[in-house]
TrEMBL record:
<protein>
    <recommendedName>
        <fullName>Sec23/Sec24 trunk domain-containing protein</fullName>
    </recommendedName>
</protein>
<feature type="domain" description="Sec23/Sec24 trunk">
    <location>
        <begin position="121"/>
        <end position="373"/>
    </location>
</feature>
<comment type="similarity">
    <text>Belongs to the SEC23/SEC24 family. SEC24 subfamily.</text>
</comment>
<feature type="domain" description="Zinc finger Sec23/Sec24-type">
    <location>
        <begin position="51"/>
        <end position="83"/>
    </location>
</feature>
<dbReference type="GO" id="GO:0008270">
    <property type="term" value="F:zinc ion binding"/>
</dbReference>
<dbReference type="InterPro" id="IPR036174">
    <property type="entry name" value="Znf_Sec23_Sec24_sf"/>
</dbReference>
<dbReference type="InterPro" id="IPR006896">
    <property type="entry name" value="Sec23/24_trunk_dom"/>
</dbReference>
<dbReference type="InterPro" id="IPR036465">
    <property type="entry name" value="vWFA_dom_sf"/>
</dbReference>
<dbReference type="Pfam" id="PF04810">
    <property type="entry name" value="zf-Sec23_Sec24"/>
</dbReference>
<dbReference type="InterPro" id="IPR006895">
    <property type="entry name" value="Znf_Sec23_Sec24"/>
</dbReference>
<dbReference type="Pfam" id="PF04811">
    <property type="entry name" value="Sec23_trunk"/>
</dbReference>
<dbReference type="GO" id="GO:0006886">
    <property type="term" value="P:intracellular protein transport"/>
</dbReference>
<dbReference type="GO" id="GO:0030127">
    <property type="term" value="C:COPII vesicle coat"/>
</dbReference>
<dbReference type="InterPro" id="IPR050550">
    <property type="entry name" value="SEC23_SEC24_subfamily"/>
</dbReference>
<dbReference type="GO" id="GO:0006888">
    <property type="term" value="P:endoplasmic reticulum to Golgi vesicle-mediated transport"/>
</dbReference>
Amino acid sequence: MAVRATVSRFPSDPDAQEASGLPWGVTVTPFATKDENGAAPVYGSDGHMLPRCENCYAYFNTYCELEQWAWTCSLCGSLNGLSSQAIARYTHPQSCAEMISSFIDLDLPLEGSEEETMQARPVYVAAVDLSSSEEFLELTRSALQAALEAVPSGALFGLATFSHKIGLYDVQGAIPVVKNVFIPSDTEDTLSLELEDVMPLSQFLAPVETFKENITSALETLRPTTSWERTAGAAQGLDGVLMGGRGFGLAMESLFNYLGSEYGNTFALARVFAFLSGPPDHGAGQLDTRRYGEQYASKGEDADRALLPEQTPFYKDLAAVAVQAGVCVDIFAITNEYTDLASLKFLSIESGGSLFLYSSTDDSTLPQDIYRMLSRPYAFNCIMRLRTSSEFKPGHSYGHFFPDPQYENVQHIICCDSYATYAYDFDFANAAGFARHTSEQPMLQIAFQYTVVVPPEELSSEGLGSVS
């Protein structure tokens, strides 16, 4: 974990902060392998035994004053008793990570049985836009081939397509089989069948190490929908103009509900790779992007839309569905037309995913990008909590997370790699600010709980928690 402050010295009071004109806060890279000074964490075990303050729930750390039977919290100053187990533990301080360093990484015990843990496999689902060109699909095939090489052993993979219909591929038989369900054109309508009724999830998700060749064969069968199919499958659009039949919104919503039914059982993390060749224009979540042409920049028309704000809250609401289903969404848009990413971005931002935009298939580095992304270590099912000493408090927070609905300053992160960075700004708790003549310094503590995928023989190390 790396924590970097925006200023080398904190302002002494609100007046000094206001007069400085500088942002006051920190950036946090929670899954970084080293801290801001390049030091690695001190590793330890029995993270569940780390004492916590009875008043502010901060964790015991090297800045706390330790007595024979008690300790004083470095954040709020409360005196806390020590259990007999903790007293015995701290009689050998050099064996305790929390007594050696302020940057520690502790193992937490696994929850559930070993059998349940083995079932919690990572899932990767490719959702491919067929309302596209052959060049787009060729690039997507190359990207998914790279992804199959990068995913960890034991992963499950599913292939889905969308246009004016959703296609689910069964690759576990002798030949790939696809089953389709049509997407209604009306924005208020839903699918006539649940995806679970179209194909059981266990049939859709195939172990990569067993069916990699079958998955490759299925990718080769992908073909763009013909102009006749689009015209027949798509309804009349706005002002009587035929739309393209790209039912992205309802396809994503259906996939999230499909996967969410097995969250925590069949899989511990699901990542959906959504490949888009243009704006969604069919069914729920369709976007009207015709008025966002280059002519508005040149003619100065529609001043209210100069900054291109999101057109609909549909995808922000859909991001909440993805989060509840344990799904991280990565969007890969390969298009040179306006696609209203201002609306679509919430799917990736709030689920912990990434958003990539490529203006053409010719110069795209999509296969390399997706391989690098999946090759990096990442954590999932993360919870981050920032605490401060009593003179100041966290203000706003920024990043690819969603706030806990019950607790303040607690953020949930679906997926987090070693580059993911989050920001917090601070406010003073009162007008007095920091005491000028005291030995007590402002304190900041960040706790980051996460899970990582490890090889089966190392499962005893799964479930790491970091406290800095």
